[in-house]
Amino acid sequence: MRLGDLLYREPVTCSPETSLKEAVHLMRLNDVGSVVVVRGGKAVGIFTERDLVRAVDEGADMGRPVSEFMTPDLVVAHPEESVESALQKMLRHGIRHLPVVTPDMKVIGVLSIRDLVEAMLEEATPL
Q1: Containing structural domain, residue 70
Q2: Which pTM value belongs to this model?
């Protein structure tokens, strides 16, 4: 199974200037654990629940830009990659959210570790 087959919803994104408060609001509103930070249509980082915990622990003002707390070193996948490959990548890097991008870094989706485990289980035990 390819990752592109699992993309069923639009990715939740924001700009680097988006406030922490607005980024958290986007996460809650869309029931997701991460927001991909995009500049000029290209992914430049990801803001996750873990980043939020770090910001709160550091006493961050919620009006500060998300770019100050995002993870800038993105680990990404491509739509033609296999679920197994993506899961290995996530485990190797200790991440729970994986942006799926085009070769020019345009975000077309985000998969969680839960999405990948569910896809593997479904493939292993078809109905």
Answers
A1: 3-124
A2: 0.91
